[in-house]
Amino acid sequence: MAEAQQLSAAAHQRLSEELEDLTTRGRTDIAAKIEAARALGDLSENGDYHAAKETKALMESRILHLTRLLDNAEIMERTSDGHVIGAGSIVSVSYDGDEPERFLVGSIEEQRDDLTVVSLGSPMGQSLLGASAGDEVCYESPAGPVRITVAAVE
Fold first, then answer.
1. What's the pLDDT score for residue 81?
2. Is the pTM for the entire model greater than 0.85?
3. At 92, is the secondary structure helix, strand, or coil?
4. Less crowded by CB within 10 Å, the N or C end of the chain?
């Protein structure tokens, strides 16, 4: 059995919607593109056909990934007070009093354009779980111990 993937409720919902879209509209659209490319004739030299088949393969790979991920997902509930770091939390941390940096703590599937994701399984992610604003945590990096201060939890 695959290891449980921890996701926030919002990420689980977004990924479920993506899976639904890919298995319905996505498959229908790509089938139409493949059929249209087939109608153009000789498949051995048909770039549209080969591109559509490659797109289909990538889409089916994503569908398989999402299916497995969601089948093994563990939805991590955020704490009611919003001050304790858990899956899906956005945190600001500072290194040695430097300007705070913002991160999203969770799975790569939680990715947002404006934030870097810190994996729950990483040394930094593990040290942040359960911490609150004002806490100082330490974790081991390849360069040695790193001490950070949690400036804020969103």
1. 55
2. no
3. strand
4. N
